[in-house]
Amino acid sequence: MKELRLMKGNEAIAEAAIRAGVDGYFGYPITPQSEVLEYLMLERPEKRTGMVVLQAESEIAAINMVYAGAGAGKMVMTSSSSPGISLKQEGITYMAGAELPCMILNVVRGGPGLGTIQPAQSDYFQAVKGGGHGDYKLIVLAPASVQEMYDFVELSFDLAFKYRTPVMILSDGAIGQMMEKVEVGEQKTRLTDAQVKERCPWATTGKDANRERNIITSLDLDPQRQEVFNHKLQAKYKKIEENEVRFEEIQTEDAEYLFVAYGTSSRICQKSMQLAREKGIKVGLFRPITLFPFPTERLLELSKQVKGMLSVEMSAGQMIEDVKLAVECNIPVEHFGRMGGIIPSPGEVVEALEQIFL
Q1: In the predicted structure, residue 136 carries a pLDDT above the cut 80
Q2: Total Cβ atoms within 10 A of residue 316
Q3: 261 and 352: one domain?
Q4: Which of 33, 254, 260, 285 is 20 to 30 A from residue 145's alpha carbon, by CA?
Q5: How far apart are CA 317 and CA 334, in angstroms?
Q6: Do 98 and 186 share a domain, yes or no?
Q7: Residue 232 covered by a domain
Q8: Which residues neighbour 28 within 8 Å (Cβ) at sequence distance 6 or greater?
Q9: Residue 139 burial by CB count (10 A; 0-12/13-18/19+): exposed, middle or buried?
């Protein structure tokens, strides 16, 4: 039976993990996402489901614990904020190279460096373009509400195991800290060891007599084999692009201009759109939900309808590059953003639209 709760975004992530039957969480506290770990510690999920919750000695240790758990076919996750995610990058690229499923939450704060604890969206490149080394990609989901923070946990694991890849939820300090009504689902039972073996025949679950050993590694010193493997990864990413694009459109039917925004920026743009339409400016909102795969095809279609697009981001302008690539120079694409942890106001966004396009 479903129930309603008033929760922070960070708390919703943690409760969703418990209820989804996640086997293990390994993390390290850092503002503004520390409530994920704190909530899990307070809830004692080891008593509810047997879920392991461990504060590691560092971010590097945490991501390598995730590597180990994923290698055994378990549903495992970690969370951090921008500098902490930077420390995890080596482990993330190792997991992409070893084709291991997991969920990673980044509650983004302002940077660069240690920066501030206020919300930002300046980790877009790191998440979408691959913050580690090598030709790898992550599936990246961008929630815009506390409910989506909850819902995207189970979705992340479904995608992670479907494609054997790490999945990142790219949130920010505003959504992580805000409180909203959340509909929580029923408790799911963690998979048994037998079910894990059936689901993940590739996992290191102990060698059965009727199969070869499973060896999990991202190391192959033979360049010919490594190239073949890289082609395999690119084919997988292509399949993801074909099947897993997600987005939301609001009042795009008659729009002459388009806000393109994700996460907190998209919430602001909903009010900006209302203000603009009260002035007689027909503006719609396009919200990418998957940042990879990016909804390129739909944006290209919309570029044939509207006069211009404004990429609204809490950064110096990162997603705008993907928007420009999508529209293939059909129309002007401009950027408006605030940096360093400042959240733009709806009025500022409308003013920017007017100054740039009208």
Answers
A1: yes
A2: 11
A3: yes
A4: 254
A5: 9
A6: yes
A7: no
A8: 37, 55, 56, 57, 58, 59, 61, 62, 80, 84
A9: buried
Is 214 part of any domain? no
CA distances in angstroms from 214 to 126, 197, 221, listed in the order given: 31, 12, 19
pLDDT in tens, 209-259: 888 899 999 999 999 999 999 999 999 999 999 999 999 999 999 999 999
Residue 210 lies in a domain: no
Whole-angstrom distance, CA of residue 25 vs CA of residue 40: 9
Asked if residues 142 and 291 have their Cβ atoms less than 8 Å apart, the reply is yes
Same domain? 58 vs 184: yes
Q: Check: CB of residue 255 under 8 Å from CB of residue 306.
A: yes
Separation between Cα atoms, residue 50 and residue 181, nearest integer Å: 27
Find the domain containing 57 and state its range: 3-194
Q: What is the CATH number of the domain that holds 285?
A: 3.40.50.920
Per-residue b/e over 186-207, b at no fewer than 16 CB within 10 Å?
eeeebbeeeebeeebeebebee
Same domain, yes or no: 44 and 185: yes
H or E, element range at 323: helix 319-327
pLDDT in tens, 148-192: 999 999 999 999 999 999 999 999 999 999 999 999 999 999 999
